[in-house]
């Protein structure tokens, strides 16, 4: 569990560990629909601080927004690939081959 946002994720999901002074920075996981934490929205400051309920809600909103933007970007890339493939297949017609695009990097 990541303390700042009080969100439970799978046990194998990385945690935010305490810093050198034993205090964790305020952080909230970016969680997929499958409840997998794929990143973290984190507040870094020169001094340890505690967030109030409103600030924690704001961080949760930022984490959800981040996940929404990542999902939107992924869908956009998938649609762009589909258009490229459809255009390539339309050009080849009955030539008997197809074009495949493979992305070699993770969505980030």
Overview of the structural elements:
This protein is α+β, with helices and mostly antiparallel strands. Helix content is 37%, strand content 10%. It is built from one helix and two strands. The chain has one helix at residues 53-92, and strands spanning 27-31, 37-42. Strands 1-2 form a two-stranded antiparallel ribbon. The radius of gyration is 20 Å and the shape is rod-shaped. The protein starts with 26 loop residues before the first strand and ends in a 16-residue tail after the last helix. The model is unreliable at 8-20 (pLDDT under 50).
Number of strands: 2
Number of helices: 1
* Overall form: rod-shaped
Strand residues, percent: 5-15%
Q: Tell me the Rg in angstroms.
A: 20 Å
Output mean pLDDT. Answer: 75
Percent helix among the residues? 25-40%
Task: Name its key features.
about 110 residues; two-stranded antiparallel sheet; about 10% strand; rod-shaped
Please outline what is shown here:
The protein is of the alpha+beta class and 108 residues long. The chain is built from one helix and two strands.
């Amino acid at each position: 569990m990541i303390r700042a946002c009080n969100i439970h994720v799978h046990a194998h999901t990385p945690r935010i560990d305490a810093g050198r002074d034993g205090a964790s920075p305020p952080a909230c996981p970016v969680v997929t629909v499958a409840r997998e934490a794929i990143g973290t929205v984190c507040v870094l400051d020169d001094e340890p601080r505690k967030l109030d309920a409103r600030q924690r809600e704001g961080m949760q909103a930022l984490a959800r927004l981040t996940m929404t933007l990542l999902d939107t970007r992924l869908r956009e890339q998938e649609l762009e690939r589909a258009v490229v493939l459809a255009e390539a297949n339309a050009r080849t017609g009955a030539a008997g081959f197809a074009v495949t695009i493979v992305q070699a990097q993770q969505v980030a």
